[in-house]
Amino acid sequence: MPALPTSFTLDLPDWLTDLSAGLPADFPTLPQRMALVNDLARRNVAAGSGGPFAAAVFERDRGRLVSLGVNRVVPLGLSCAHAEVMALSLAQQALGSWDLGAPGLPAHQLVVNWRPCAMCFGATLWSGVVDLVIAGDGPELESLTGFDEGPLPATWPDELRQRRIALTVGVGRDEAVALFASFGRSGAPVYNGRGGGRR
Amino acid sequence: MPALPTSFTLDLPDWLTDLSAGLPADFPTLPQRMALVNDLARRNVAAGSGGPFAAAVFERDRGRLVSLGVNRVVPLGLSCAHAEVMALSLAQQALGSWDLGAPGLPAHQLVVNWRPCAMCFGATLWSGVVDLVIAGDGPELESLTGFDEGPLPATWPDELRQRRIALTVGVGRDEAVALFASFGRSGAPVYNGRGGGRR
Fold first, then answer.
1. Model pLDDT for residues B24-59, shown as the tens digit of each residue
2. What DSSP letter does each residue of B123-135 carry, written as one string?
3. A1–B25: do the CB atoms touch at under 8 Å?
4. Tens digits of residue pLDDT in B119-164
5. ipTM value > 0.90
6. For the whole prediction, is pTM greater than 0.95?
7. CATH topology for B26-185?
8. Residue B198 DSSP SS3
9. What own/partner pairs with CB < 8 Å and gap ≥ 24 does A104-107 have?
C-alpha cells in the first residue's frame, strides 16, 4: 500500500514571527496582555493567515510572554490548528514539558479573545495552565461570525475550578466583539468541518 | 527579548511507521478496523512511545486505511498529542484538506479505542468525519487507568447527530478494557496536566 503520512508541522505566519521580535518581554497587566491578543487576531484576519482568533501564554505573575498563537486552520489545512492549540503547544515546546504546571515551573496563564471552543476547552484542561483569561463567553462569537464553537457542559466554569484553573472573563471584550462583527460582515469562509455540520 | 517558538512537529513512533508499511490497504469490517486500533494502542504502551490510546481514519465504505495515530503526549512533550489529533491531522495532511468531509472526498470514519476525551470530542466535530466508531463509552477508562478524560455534555451523542456524525459504540470492547486494566496495574504515569488537577 502507499506509505501513510507520519508527521505534521504547525507554524506561525511570518508576519507574527517578525512582529514578535519587537515585542516587550513582559506584559504586566491583563488589559495589556489581552490588547496584544486582540491585536494579533485582527492582524491574522487582515493578513489572510487564519481565522479571527489569537491566544498567548504568559507567566501569570510577572507577565513574561512565553508563546503566541493564531488560528491557522485554513492555511495549514489542519482543523486542530486553533489559536489555543498553537499557543499551548509552542509554550510546552519552549519549556520542554507537556505540563505547563509541572513542579519547578512558574504559574502559566492562557489569554484568548473569547471562550475556547469545545476542543480548546479540553486542550486548556490538559495543558497545565493555572489561569484562563478570556475577553467574553457569550453567544456573540457564534452569532456574529457563524462559527460553530461546539458544546461545553453547562458547568464549564466549575470544571475549570475543579482542576484548579482560575477564570477571568471580560477583559478587552469590546475589541473582541468588534473583530467578530467585522469578520462576519466580510463574508470570509467559516471553516468548521462540513460547513459546521448543523447548517 | 529571546525569540519565541514558532513551530512544532508531531510524528508517529518509528515502530508504527515500520509496521504500517506491512498493513493491508483495506480493512473491510468494523471489527477488523478496531482490532488494528486496539493492537496499536497495546503496542504503543509496550514500546514506551505514549499512552494506551490509538486511532485510525478510514474511508467509511470500502475501509481504505487513510491514517493512523497513537498517543504521543509524553514522548513529544505536547499535551495535545492524543491519538485522535494525530490520526485526524495526518489524514487531513494526506488529503490536503482541513475538512475530511469536503465535497469530492469519500466519507471518512474515525475509529478509536474509547470515547474521545473532552478535547478530542471537539477535534472530531471539527474534522469533517461523518462516522465515529468507539470500543466503549463507559467509566472503565477513567476508573481503570486514573486518567481524567474531562467533561462531555450529557447530550454528546446528540451533539454528534446534530452535526451528521454517526456513532457506533462497543466494537472490540473487551480488548480495549483489558488494555486499560493492564495499563492501570503497571503504575505507568498518568500524564494529565498537573496530575489531572482533581487529585
1. 999 999 999 999 999 999 999 999 999 999 999 999
2. HHHHHT-SEEEES
3. yes
4. 999 999 999 999 999 999 999 999 999 999 999 999 999 999 999 9
5. yes
6. yes
7. Cytidine Deaminase; domain 2 (3.40.140)
8. coil
9. A106/A59, A106/A60, A106/A61, A106/A62, A106/A64, A107/A59, A107/A60, A107/A61, A107/A131
Q: Smallest Cβ distance to B119: which of A74, A126, A165?
A: A126
B3 touching A (Cβ < 8 Å)? yes
The angle formed by the CA atoms of residues A162, A133 and A177, to the nearest 5 degrees, is 130
Q: Which residues does chain A have within 8 Å of residue B89's beta carbon, measured at their own beta carbons?
A: 8, 78-80
Amino acid at A175: E
- Best probe of the A interface among B6, B57, B191, by most A CBs < 10 A, is B6
55-84 in chain A: CB under 8 A from chain B: 65-68, 73-74, 76-81
- Choosing among A126, A130, A132, A164, which should be mutated to test the B contact, i.e. which has the most B CBs within 10 A? A126
Residue B66 burial (10 A CB sphere; 0-12, 13-18, 19+): buried
DSSP A79: T
| A10 three-class SS | strand
At residue A122's C-alpha, the angle toward residues A121 and A128, to 5°, is 100
CATH 3.30.70.1070 for the A24-154+170-185 domain, yes or no:
no
| Phi, psi torsion values for B178, nearest 5 degrees | -60, -40
How far apart CA B79 and CA A103 sit, in angstroms, is 16
Report the C-alpha gap between A193 and B88 in whole angstroms.
12
Determine contact, residues B134/B115, Cβ cutoff 8 Å: yes
Nearest chain A Cα distance for residue B79, angstroms: 5
Tell me whether residues A7 and B11 touch, CB distance under 8 A: yes
| Best mutation target, A6, A15, A18, to test chain B (most B CBs within 10 A) | A6
Cβ-based contacts of A66 with chain B (< 8 Å): 4
Element (H, E) at B15: helix B14-20
Residue B164's closest CA among B44, B60, B55? Answer: B60
